[in-house]
Each structure stands twice: as C-alpha cells, then as structure tokens.
Amino acid sequence: MDGINNNYTRAFTITIVNKSIILSEKDKEELAKYAEAEKPYESCAILVGNETDENWTVKEIVLTENTTKSEVMFTISPDKEFEVDQKAKESNMEIVCIFHSHPESEAQPSETDKKFMRVNPFPWIIYSGKTKEMNCFILQDENVKQISII
Ligand SMILES: [Zn+2]
Questions:
Q1: CA atoms within 13 A on the CB side of 88
Q2: I want to staple 48 with a disulfide (CB 3.0 to 4.6 A). Which of 3, 60, 124, 127 is the partner?
Q3: In this structure, is the dihedral angle defined by the CA atoms of residues 47, 10, 18 and 1, taken in order, positive or negative?
C-alpha cells in the first residue's frame, strides 16, 4: 500500500479503491481552515468537478452551512445541494464529493455517516480537527472503502 496514508488507527478493515480523488493543496487548506473556524460544530462542503474512469477531479469547493449546528452531525440543506448540482451541470461538472469535519474525533466515518453514505453515493472526505488528517471514503457493497487523495 505504498503512497497511501497509513497514519491512522483502523477501526475496521478498509479496502483501497483503485481510483483517486484529485484535490489541490489550496482547496485542502481552505477546507481545513473552514473546519477549524466552524469549531465546535462539524463543518461541511460540496465539492464539484468531474469523474473519469481513473479519478474524481475537484475543480470547485462550495462551503456550506451545517444547518444542524451539531458537534457530532452535519446537514446540508437539500435546497443548497440542488442549487450546487444545477450550477455544476451548467458548467459541465457534477457533484463529486461531500466534505465534512469531525472536530474532536478521527477522520473516519461514523455509523451515522455510513447511513448517509448509502443515500449519497459520492466519495466522502472527512477532516479531523483532532489529528488534522483528511481521508476520503466511499461506501460500496455495504463496505467502507478508502480513496486516496492526491
Ligand atoms: Zn461524520
């Protein structure tokens, strides 16, 4: 598993998906900064770009409000998601990823996350305010699989 972030404690077995997500350093920094600023609440964002057979490329990030204002949960309003999706399509893009942060826990999907990953079959990026790590996951065949962020 060379080149993959092995620097975190695995709570469950994770298969690495043979497809990466491309996120610029600038976007990573902006997402981390937003997550830190929104503490103690979870923060969230919608990442827009394109998907090919090899990867997902993030071209734009849309910082969204966590309407739940919770330390352990997040909600993006469906209206906002619809609006972002419409705008993306106008520019020949699509929603490629959902971002959210865990202010005080690891960058791994919670049970609640897994439930929502089932209905939002995008890659999910999770940033940990505790370890400052950013990991990406997707739920496939009821299993959480990791996607490398490059
Ligand atoms: Zn979560």
A1: 22
A2: 60
A3: positive
DSSP code of residue 149: B
Q: How far is the CA of 130 from the centre of ligand 1 (A)?
A: 13
Lookup result for tokens 């409000």: 65
Residue 20 CA to ligand 1 center (angstroms) comes to 20
Tell me which fold the domain 15-147 belongs to.
Answer: Cytidine Deaminase; domain 2 (3.40.140)
- Going from the C-alpha of 3 to that of each of 6, 7, 16, 134, the distances in angstroms are 9, 11, 11, 15
Distance 107 CA to ligand 1 centre (A): 8
Contact 5, 148 (CB under 8 A): yes
What spacing in Å lies between the alpha carbon of 2 and ligand 1's midpoint? 26
Q: What residue segments make up the domains of the chain, in order of their start?
A: 15-147
**pLDDT tens digits for range 41-93:** 999 999 999 999 899 999 999 999 999 999 999 999 999 999 999 999 999 99
Predicted confidence at residue 135, as pLDDT, reads: 97
**Closest alpha carbon to 121 in 104, 97, 103:** 97
CA 100 vs CA 13, 20, 26, 75: distances in Å: 22, 18, 17, 10
